[in-house]
Structures are given as structure tokens and as C-alpha cells.
Write a structure and sequence with these properties.
The complex is a heterodimer of chains A (about 290) and B (about 260). Chain A has about 290 residues and is mainly α. Chain A has eleven helices and two strands; from the N terminus they run H-H-H-H-E-E-H-H-H-H-H-H-H. Chain A has helices at about 1-30, 40-55, 60-85, 90-115, 140-160, 165-175, 175-180, 185-210, 220-230, 235-255, 265-275; strands at about 130-135, 135-140. Chain B has about 260 residues and is an alpha/beta fold. Chain B has a domain at about 1-80 and about 195-260: P-loop containing nucleotide triphosphate hydrolases (Rossmann fold). Helix content of chain B is about 35%, strand content about 25%. The chains are: A mainly alpha (about 290), B alpha/beta (about 260). Chains A and B meet through helix 6 and helix 7 of A and helix 2, helix 3 and helix 6 of B.
Chain lengths: ~290, ~260
């Protein structure tokens, strides 16, 4: 029983970082219909940027994180503005290939600048500091990840639900022509969603970096986040979050009771199952357009 | 009256298709001007050209609004100048509520209290929308969506309201209702440019009418006169010509302005 609870707790903890990556992908997908495969690497370079500030320039930690977030937003905006917007008559496949290209460029850049070996992120909370409640074991970092993820989700939820800008983002996502004719600068909204999404990804990256910090650190969370996004239907923010937590828990239970070796494959088996059984995703709200 | 909108000799291409072949017209301040034409005559294209919806067009010609050229600008800039546009086929946001639509319609405005007043005003025009305030727009009926699209455009407090076939797909009784509201909106001081297939309705509320065929205007005039015009009657109002003295029915006479 203790094992079971422990697995659930760890699953929820790891699910938080999947949830952040999933959210980041969904935010972009909803506005530009592109699954952004550069998401992980955008987070990667932001994390390394923070590390560089901390180690080489001895920036105070909060300032370094703040600067990393600013960097992430600018990076997202820049990629949209300078690369994706320039695509001539883009189709979706072309856009996906562009994001994969961006991913490789950033990956190469980080490997070249920082080297491919494991780095140590001077994070105030070490990866092994932990709480023990009863017999349940949970690291402080996991708690921090969970709390940050929940906080960020609440902020995003409030932003999309109640702010005028958030509403404009939703409007652009649903009908960009109509958004233009009410005077929304859809290009700018698109750029902004890339910025927000990059920021969400960077938060995930920074929270992962104390445990693993090398150029491939975002691969796993990004793919799992993508898996969660697909499970959630690719267009639903809460769907992606719920799916991410489910994924984290299922993964841990599978690892604990069935096979630890195949633990990380489970996510993709689930994707295949979901796509076979309910291709629109578990949580997408079906809406059939009236003519 | 001064001209609010002045379109001079515009030519528009859709890729290789030469859609508007040199059209000029003016919309007087405070008037209702209506453009009539059959399917494919280029009515909607003219409006899209004005709104900057077709990239790189008009190929030639100028469009002036309030004395300032507006051609080759982004749609949102044109909207900022005070032109609201209700496109053909409504173009609503499926998953925003009615209230959110009206807020989005006022996206460019900052005066919160006035916005609230205008929402009440829109609900006065279209009481049914008030009942649907918190309902997703995608779940509304076609007529309600049309009302919503008009309401959303009004939230901008436009100087010029452009309507593209507001009667499309609506029941006759609803068409009547919408047209009477359009007339009322005009009497409140908004200039209206209306594109229609329903010639009878459109001419009955408008002051000036233009007839478009194959990308050119073939007739302009006071709406009253157009309503009485023999050719207009025949082609657009669907009034049959009478049987001739010899007993031939001549209602199928084919004619085009070319």
C-alpha cells in the first residue's frame, strides 16, 4: 500500500513537468496548428542561459531566473517573428519541419557552447533534499515543481478566462479572420502565444535542471508532454494537464508493478491506444461547426 | 453631404482571376448605400478589398476613408479608422460566449463604462441575444449568429458599417427584422454600406443603389428610381414582364450589361 501511494505521489510530481511542457505545446498548437517540436530545446536554451548567468556572471539567483524568463519570452517571440512568419504559403507539414529544424539548431548551439556532458545547476534546492511524511518520500524539488505548475496553470486559466488579451488570444485561435475584423493584430497575438509558451516551457526546464542538466535533458519531458497534449486532444489546456498527471501516475505504476525497463515506453503505448480508440483526444470538446 | 468612403477605379485580382475591373463609387456620410449584383459579380470582393482582406490588392486604384487613403493596409489598421465589417457567413467565434463577443467587438476601445452602455444598446436591438448572454456563439441559430455579428460590429462604434449579405440564409421574417434594425442603426448616425442579393429589401431601406455586374458597376442611382427601373425590376426584383399584345410571354428575355 505504501508503495502504491509512493508511486502515485512520484507520478504526480513527475506529471507536473509533463503538464508544463504539454501546456506549452497546446498553447502554440491552438493558435498556429503546429505541434512545436522545438519546445523542449527552447526550454533547454533558457535553462542553460540561467546557468550561464549563475555560474559565469554570479547573478543573484532570482534575478537570473527572471532574466531567463525574459530571455525565454523574447526567444519565443523571435522564433515566431523571424522564422515561422517568414514561411511562404506554409502548410502544416512544412511548419513542423521548420520547428524540427529550429530544434536541431538550438540543440547544436547548446552542445557547442556548453558541451554535452552533465552540468550542475546551482539551484538553491538540491535534487536530494526531501520531505518524509509517514513513509512517503517526496523531494523538495518535486514539491516545488508541483506548486509552481499549479500556480502557473491558475495564472494561465485566469489570463485566458478574464483578461481582454487572453480573450483576444482565444478569439484569434478560433477564427483569425473574425479576429482581424474586430481590430485584433493577429500576428502580434501569434507572436505573443509563442512567447507565453516558451516561458511555460522555460519554467519546466528550470525545474528539471537541478536533476539533469545536459543538452538532451528536455527530450523526455518534451515527448511526454507532447504525449499528454495528444491524449488531451491537442487543443484543450485542462485536457493536457489532466492527461499529463495521468501519464505520470500510469508510468510510475507500470514501472513499479510491471516492468521498470519499459517504463518510459508506456506513454507512447498510451498515445497509440488513445489515437486508436478516441482520436480526438480524451478531453477535447467536440464542436461541430454549423454551416 | 461629404463622402465618407470614396473608392476610385479599383481593380482586384484573385491570383489570375480579374475580379474587380475598375469600380468607383462613393458612400455619403449618413447614408445607406447598397450594392446589388448576382452571384459572382464581385460584391463581396469589393468589400474584402476595402477591408484589406485580400493580400496585395487592390492592384490599381485608391480607397479613401474620411479623406485618408486606406488601401494596402492591414485589416486591423483599417478597422482602427472606424470601419466595422460584418462578413459574409458571419464569421463568429464558436467557443466564445455572446457577452465575450461583444467585448471583443469593443477590443479597440478603452472606455469601460461606455462599452457597458453599448452592450445594453445591442441587447435592445437584439433582445434574443440577451437571453443567450452566456451561451457559446457556436450553439446559436443562424439568425442569432447574424445578429451577434452585427452586434459585435456595432460595439466598435463605427463611422461606417459594412454589411455583407446580412439576409443570407435567414427566414423572410428575420430578414425583415434585420433590415428594420439596420435602418434604425443608420438613423442613429452610422453610415452603412450594404451588399445584398435581396434587391427589393435592400433598395427599400437604402438611399443610393449601385448595380454590379462582372466586376463593373453598370448602374447607379437613387434607390427609389432603381426600384422603378424596368431592367432592375426584371433582373433583380424578379418581376415578370407582362405578356405582350400577341400573347407571347417574354419573361425569359436574357439581357446583361456588358
Amino acid at each position: 500500500m505504501i508503495d502504491f501511494i509512493q508511486m502515485i505521489v512520484s507520478g504526480i510530481a513527475v506529471g507536473s513537468s509533463y503538464a508544463l511542457m504539454g501546456l506549452a505545446m497546446v498553447i502554440i498548437y491552438k493558435t498556429s496548428q503546429v505541434p512545436n517540436f522545438a519546445q523542449g530545446e527552447m526550454a533547454l536554451i533558457s535553462s542553460f542561459f540561467a546557468m550561464m548567468l549563475l555560474t559565469t556572471f554570479n547573478t543573484p539567483i532570482l534575478l537570473a531566473f527572471f532574466l531567463a524568463f525574459v530571455f525565454a519570452i523574447l526567444l519565443g517571440c523571435f522564433l515566431e517573428f523571424a522564422i515561422l512568419r517568414r514561411a511562404k504559403d506554409p502548410n502544416i507539414l512544412g511548419m513542423i519541419v521548420i520547428t524540427i529544424g529550429i530544434e536541431m539548431v538550438i540543440l547544436g548551439l547548446v552542445s557547442w557552447k556548453f558541451g554535452a556532458d552533465q552540468k550542475i545547476m546551482p539551484f538553491p534546492i538540491g535534487p536530494y533534499d526531501s520531505f518524509i511524511i509517514g513513509n512517503i518520500f517526496i523531494t523538495k524539488l518535486e514539491v516545488l515543481t508541483l506548486v509552481t505548475a499549479l500556480l502557473l496553470m491558475i495564472i494561465l486559466f485566469l489570463f485566458f478566462k478574464y483578461s481582454k488579451l487572453g480573450l483576444a488570444v482565444k478569439a484569434t485561435q478560433q477564427n483569425s479572420v473574425a479576429a482581424q475584423i474586430v481590430g485584433i493584430r493577429t500576428n502580434r497575438i501569434l507572436m505573443m502565444t509563442w512567447g507565453i509558451s516558451s516561458l511555460v516551457g522555460a519554467v519546466a526546464g528550470l525545474l528539471i535542471s537541478p536533476t539533469i542538466m545536459h543538452p538532451y535533458m528536455m527530450w523526455d519531458p518534451m515527448l511526454k508532454g507532447f504525449a499528454a497534449a495528444v491524449m488531451g486532444g491537442m487543443t484543450s489546456l485542462p485536457g493536457a494537464v489532466i492527461a499529463a498527471y495521468m501519464l505520470g501516475i500510469i508510468e510510475h505504476l507500470f514501472g513499479g508493478y510491471i516492468s521498470i525497463e519499459f517504463k518510459s515506453v508506456v506513454a507512447f503505448v498510451i498515445i497509440v491506444l488513445v489515437l486508436c480508440i478516441k482520436p480526438s483526444g480524451l478531453f477535447s470538446r467536440h464542436y461541430i461547426k454549423k454551416v | 453631404m461629404p463622402n465618407l468612403l470614396e473608392v476610385k477605379n479599383i481593380e482586384t485580382y484573385y491570383d489570375l482571376v480579374y475580379a474587380i475591373r475598375g469600380a468607383s463609387f462613393v458612400v455619403e456620410d449618413g447614408s445607406i448605400t447598397t450594392i446589388l449584383g448576382t452571384n459572382g459579380s464581385g460584391k463581396s470582393t469589393i468589400l474584402k478589398t476595402i477591408m484589406g482582406q485580400i493580400e496585395g490588392q487592390p492592384d490599381k486604384g485608391t480607397i479613401e476613408f474620411d479623406g485618408m487613403p486606406i488601401q494596402h493596409q492591414d485589416t486591423d489598421k483599417i478597422v482602427r479608422k472606424g470601419i466595422a465589417y460584418v462578413p459574409e457567413g458571419r464569421e463568429i467565434f464558436d467557443e466564445l460566449t455572446v457577452h465575450e463577443h461583444l467585448l471583443m467587438g469593443a477590443y479597440l476601445r478603452k472606455d469601460t463604462s461606455e462599452i457597458k452602455k453599448d452592450i445594453i444598446q445591442v441587447f435592445k436591438y437584439f433582445p434574443i441575444l440577451k437571453e443567450r448572454t452566456n451561451q457559446w456563439a457556436g450553439t446559436l441559430s443562424g439568425g442569432e449568429q447574424q445578429m451577434l455579428a452585427i452586434g459585435r460590429a456595432l460595439m466598435l462604434r463605427p463611422k461606417l458599417l459594412i454589411l455583407d449579405e446580412p439576409s443570407l440564409g435567414l427566414s423572410p421574417i428575420l430578414v425583415k427584422e434585420i433590415f428594420s434594425i439596420i435602418k434604425e442603426i443608420n438613423s442613429q448616425g452610422t453610415t452603412i454600406l450594404l451588399v445584398e442579393q435581396n434587391a427589393n429589401m435592400a433598395l427599400s431601406i437604402s438611399s443610393t443603389g449601385l448595380i454590379l455586374e462582372n466586376g463593373r458597376f453598370v448602374m447607379k442611382g437613387k434607390s427609389k428610381d432603381l426600384l422603378e427601373d424596368k431592367d432592375v425590376k426584371e433582373f433583380y426584383l424578379g418581376i415578370k414582364s407582362e405578356t405582350s399584345a400577341k400573347g407571347y410571354q417574354r419573361w425569359k428575355r436574357k439581357k446583361a450589361w456588358r
